[in-house]
Design goal:
Elements (H helix, E strand, L loop, with lengths): L3 H10 L5 H10 L4 H4 L6 E4 L11 H14 L3 E6 L4 H9 L2 E5 L11 H4 L2 H4 L9 E7 L4 H10 L5 E7 L3 H5 L4 H5 L4 E5 L6
Parallel strand pairs: 1-2, 1-4, 2-3, 4-5, 5-6
């Protein structure tokens, strides 16, 4: 059973650390894969709508998570509904692979493309090599992460992030606790300046 008090306690202990990536490093070894002689081909998929930080909030937090995962030795893939050439170049320079939505009709890109229409808009997710973890965000993309896991990538783990500043507000909203029962790990991220 999910106990908010337990996560508040974890939050105090790891307030400025990315709990999920710390756990991943523990599971797969610390240091870089090359220095440890480990399998360096573990992949993480982060569900987001953009690579840039123009919207702030979730986009900035997911960008930080992506960069920290890359620094921890993972191959990192980030979904985007659309991306400019500058976004693509910036992600490439940082070693991040963007997974752009496939445009199949005249509808405006929206988050339903991740939650409901992911088989059509993101048809190649199964081709991501050695995909181990899907990261969503409570409340915006955690449902999409669970849906993709259950429908298409059952061998993955689902992690959900939550903004440090919004925890007390979001954790008590109706439905969030039920959604979190399908998540392997919940971690909290203290936003920093955009990277």
């Amino acid at each position: 059973m999910f106990r908010p008090q337990m996560y508040f306690m974890m939050l105090v202990v790891v307030s400025s650390h990315l709990l999920g990536l710390v756990s991943m490093q523990t599971e797969y070894g610390t240091g870089t894969c090359d220095s440890q002689g480990l399998d360096c081909h573990r992949s993480v998929l982060i569900l987001n709508d953009e690579w840039g930080t123009s919207k702030g909030g979730l986009s900035t937090m997911n960008r930080q998570i992506a960069l920290e995962a890359k620094n921890a030795g993972f191959e990192v893939y980030v979904t985007v509904l659309d991306a400019s050439e500058d976004d693509i170049d910036d992600a490439y320079e940082k070693g991040i692979k963007l997974v752009k939505a496939k445009i199949v009709d005249s509808r405006e890109p929206n988050m339903d493309w991740l939650t409901i229409y992911h088989p059509v808009q993101f048809p190649d997710l199964e081709k991501i090599p050695n995909l181990d973890i899907i990261i969503g965000h409570v409340p915006l993309t955690s449902e999409a992460a669970i849906s993709i896991h259950k429908q298409r990538l059952p061998g993955t783990k689902v992690y959900s992030s939550m903004s440090f500043q919004k925890i007390s507000k979001n954790i008590n909203k109706a439905g969030h606790l039920k959604k979190l029962s399908n998540v392997n790990m919940l971690f909290f991220k203290q936003p920093r300046k955009p990277m």
